[in-house]
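If your schedule permits, I should be very grateful for your opinion on a structural question. I have a record of one protein: its chain in single-letter code and its fold written as discrete structure tokens. Would you kindly read the sequence against the tokens and tell me how you understand this chain to fold? Thank you for your consideration; the sequence and its tokens are set out here.


***
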Amino acid sequence: PFTIDGTTTSKAKAIRDGRETGVVESTLEYNLATMRPITLNSESAPSYTYKGAAVLVDGLTGDDNYRSGRYIGFYGKDFDATIDLQEEREISSVSVGTYLVPGDYIFGLTGLEVYGSSDGKNFKKIASKSIPTLEKGSKNNVLARPEINFDKAQTRYVRIVGKCTPVLPKWHPGAGSQTFLFKDEVAVK
């Protein structure tokens, strides 16, 4: 056992019967939401739920493959989750990882909202932010991390709502169709 209380990189390899695998490396990035209870308030796409909401607060950022299990996918729905910080904490920013693959109908956020609550039932809006829709010619396979900063607020429960791109824009070959939204690590600071 070992304790992690900040950014930590671990490396491992398997050795068996004189044979070795290559070294596998993972970096755990700690923040106030890391390893805290999280509840999804919006339903993820069944094919892209993987290990569920816990992957959003496991300290591991997404990789370059939205099918790897490091992301949760939503189809035609906003991202909406509540994190229990397990005690009143002072927060001043929230960021969410979003994987962008416009060619596969995977678009980003058009807005981000943060709410706080001391009881998990009555929430008050702390901050909101608009985010531009992807433009024609946007690159595929990009990990974006929209962040919203705000005046310090005391809260135990943090509700984060990420507004999805409602439909594919006119310039897209699938114009008018719903979009996918792929989320990875949520950070609360």
